[in-house]
Automatic annotation (TrEMBL):
Database matches in InterPro entries: FAD/NAD-bd_sf, FAD/NAD-binding_dom, Sulphide_quinone_reductase
Taxonomic lineage from the root: Bacteria, Bacillati, Cyanobacteriota, Cyanophyceae, Oscillatoriophycideae
Protein name as it appears in the record: NAD(P)/FAD-dependent oxidoreductase
Organism: Cyanobacterium stanieri LEGE 03274
Annotated ranges, domain FAD/NAD(P)-binding: 6-126, 206-305
Residue ranges of coiled coil: none
Top-level division of the source organism's lineage: Bacteria
Length: 406
């Protein structure tokens, strides 16, 4: 099997990979670029919360990969198996060897199934669900809407997770659905949070604390789910003092911890935690200057969201082009991330922030308040932006949506 060679090889055809490829081709459509991506389908995962809440169709979150990869970019439908940064080569699962001048690593993350005993065999049935498992997102809504009362648990794990706000978003919609269906008064809702706070950015903690109090939700901090016992409908949590606590449930929504794909931790490009070891500002690898990473699998210390990728992508693109022109990569990512915190149907706190852990609102409004306008942004504007602007490499600024504030 002969080797393939490209100027730029992108591992991953998700939000980050397609966006970077599109922006590169808009800057220079003569570049020889390949995307290494095994999946036929591309998913708009930020909408899975809304699917689980019954207000969005799962099929509307899916498009075929070949409809999104920009013209002129080669799609290699295979898995990355090994990265050899010293030889500038990637080996695929089928044994292909791909040479590159520059490598962009953005394969996303995978669920740490073994972190919760019984989770893999239980999720998707017996009122155990998760919006992080695409095969059972529709089952989340089925479970919530058919709930007859009892104890409903929603979990947040120790360790990395994609979109840290999502575990509580679905909980707020579930609470309102229980009320609408007449079972709220016979339902106990528990938010089992492995951390010690509601959100990682202080400015947004207080309003979220007020919301769970208003909704009558019991928050158990320092509770990390480690086992599910479906036969007895029991969830086992490791608590801060080293002991385990068992809580019976009638339904449970699980948010599992996640990790980068194994080929990263097994190669020289990964750090001790298994993430691609890059500078948090330039997105450039700390040891191999022709390698960049962005998105969920990188070591960049910000929330793993599509919004973060939207700001990381142009930094990666401009810094690669600078290197190709024998210039120093100087573009910097400031750590911007956005988490539209859905707090109920028709209500959202648009949590935007950066490395300073301070709010960085795109709109001239107090970002810590629940707003109907931000629900419209989450429900309608952001999916449109994703498919029609971001993945096509087109610029977007929030000014385009000022009409939502009127």
């Amino acid at each position: 099997m002969s080797n393939k060679s490209f100027q730029i090889l992108i591992i991953g055809g998700g939000a980050a990979g397609v966006t970077v490829a599109s922006q590169l081709m808009k800057k220079n459509n003569n570049l020889r670029i390949a995307i290494l991506e095994p999946s036929e389908n591309h998913y708009y995962q930020p909408a899975w919360t809304l699917v689980g809440g019954g207000v969005y169709q799962f099929e509307d979150t899916v498009k075929h990969e070949d409809k999104l990869i920009p013209r002129g970019v080669t799609w290699i439908k295979d898995f990355a198996e090994n990265v050899d940064p010293n030889q500038n080569q990637v080996t695929t699962k089928t044994g292909q060897i791909i040479n590159y001048d520059y490598l962009v690593v953005c394969p996303g993350v995978q669920i740490k199934w073994d972190s919760i005993t019984g989770f893999r065999d239980t999720v998707g049935k017996n009122n155990v669900t998760s919006n992080y498992v695409k095969e059972v997102v529709d089952y989340t809504w089925e479970t919530i809407n058919n709930f007859k009362g009892g104890t409903a648990i929603f979990t947040f794990p120790a360790g990395a997770i994609k979109c840290p706000g999502a575990p509580q978003k679905i909980m707020y919609m579930a609470e309102e659905t229980f009320a609408k269906n007449g079972v709220r008064d016979k339902t106990k809702i528990i938010y089992a949070n492995a951390t010690g706070k509601m959100f990682g950015v202080p400015a947004y903690c207080k309003p979220l604390e007020e919301i769970v109090q208003r909704k009558g939700i019991e928050v158990k901090y320092g509770h990390n789910l480690i086992e599910l016992k479906p036969d007895t409908q029991e969830a086992v949590f490791a608590v801060n003092d080293g002991e385990n606590v068992t809580i019976k449930y009638d339904m449970i929504h699980v948010s599992p911890a996640m990790k980068a794909p194994d080929f990263i931790s097994s190669s020289a490009i990964g750090n001790e935690g298994g993430w691609v070891d890059v500078d948090k500002f330039t997105c450039q690898h700390n040891q191999y200057p022709n390698i960049f990473a962005l998105g969920d699998a990188s070591s960049i210390p910000t929330s793993k969201t599509a919004a973060a990728i939207r700001k990381e992508a142009p930094v990666v693109v401009n810094n690669i082009l600078a290197l190709m022109a024998q210039q120093k990569p100087i573009d910097k990512y400031a750590g911007y991330a956005c988490c539209p915190l859905v707090t109920g149907y028709g209500k959202t706190i648009m949590a935007e922030f950066d490395y300073t852990k301070e709010p960085t609102p795109s709109f001239p409004l107090d970002p810590t308040k629940e707003r109907a306008s931000m629900w419209l942004v989450k429900r309608y504007a952001l999916p449109w932006i994703y498919w029609n602007r971001m993945l096509k490499g087109e610029p977007f600024e929030a000014d385009s949506w000022r009409f939502l504030l009127k």
